[in-house]
């Protein structure tokens, strides 16, 4: 479900279509400040104060060769998930 939500968010905010599996890397950036292990890493390496000036880059490939009918199916799935939440 998260992958479809990330896919829709990317399309809605950036106008970039990524297939759902390509959105898996997004979760790492999303969790930068919420996961205790990541927070501990930032603290251990004195990076917490620098986070306000960082840019998270997500390497996401895939989407350019997905046929339009499948893209439409993916977007419908994302819309259904949004409606159900």
From TrEMBL:
GO terms for molecular function: lyase activity. Keywords: Lyase. SUPFAM superfamilies: Tryptophan synthase beta subunit-like PLP-dependent enzymes. The keyword Hydrolase does not apply. It comes from the Bacteria. GO terms for biological process: alpha-amino acid metabolic process. Gene3D superfamilies: 3.40.50.1100. Transmembrane segments: none annotated. This is D-serine ammonia-lyase. It comes from Butyricicoccus porcorum. The lineage of its organism: Bacteria, Bacillati, Bacillota, Clostridia, Eubacteriales.
